[in-house]
Amino acid sequence: MTREATEGRPAAEPLAAPAERRGILLTVAYDGGLFAGFAPQPGQRTITGELLGALQAVDPAVRHIRGASRTDSGVHARGQRVAFDSAADIPPKGWVLAVTRHLPDQIAVRRASIVPAGFSPRFTSHGKRYRYVILRDPVRDPFLEGRAWRSQSFADAEAVGRARREAQAALGTHDFAAFRSSADARTNTVRTVRAIALVEDPLDARLLHVTIEGDAFLHNMVRILVGTLADVARGRLPEGAVARALASRDREDAGITAPGEGLYLEEVLLDEQGTHVWPPGA
């Protein structure tokens, strides 16, 4: 086209630069009783499915979320960590309030921050802390139904003492092959348990909290450890069962698998907490 043909025409508007994608890190809490676990499953209601739907209601371009822990059906969380990428110009406060508004009552976003695009809490975690809640009550409590394992295995001080002694064998770095479900096909089964404690609730003597912190966990590892402590506490297994199962690597030497309803993912331990955290101090 000649110069004459273009004279007098307004200059074309420059193309807008595409918005820069950034990572958003969420802390998510949920009551897992109504869900088939965290990970997506065809035809099942899952935590991931609910979160992704809520995120897409705020930013339809969000396609994937990256979670830190694939909690099982019925398992709860106070500190699940989830990351995703978005080009939307929304501050962390906006993500917390807007996404939670689209979630069912059993799930809430508790905190948000900005992290690099592609950030994965699963692969940047240096540990996790779980808490297992046991209700020592001969009758059902409707306010704790689905949120604690009602068991008489730890009914008295002698039983709790046996379990506390037994728990010490799990501390340190061991091959925990005996403490995983048959669905776990991982070849590396060495894990480190940094801390394990059985603490009676100071406000409700019926409740016993088993807290376990480690670098990583196998599938059902915490539940099988708690089940083994319960079997030793009530005398179904002799003391020394944890050490024997660690040595044999045989699932038959460990105890029962405690039900999912008493388990809580308390915290995913991350070095990177992101910037512009909201709520501040959370």
Describe the structure.
- By secondary structure, the protein is an alpha+beta fold.
- The protein has two domains: 22-124, Pseudouridine synthase I, catalytic domain, N-terminal subdomain (Alpha-Beta Plaits, 2-Layer Sandwich), CATH 3.30.70; 126-266, Alpha-Beta Plaits.
- 21% of the residues lie in helices and 28% in strands.
- The chain has helices at residues 3-6, 47-58, 92-101, 157-167, 221-233, 241-248, and strands at residues 22-30, 66-67, 76-86, 107-115, 125-135, 149-150, 172-175, 190-200, 207-214, 263-270, 275-278.
- Strands 1, 2, 3, 4, 5, 6, 7, 8, 9, 10 and 11 form an eleven-stranded mixed sheet that branches.
- Helix 2 crosses helix 3 and helix 4 crosses helix 5.
- The chain is globular, with a radius of gyration of 24 Å.
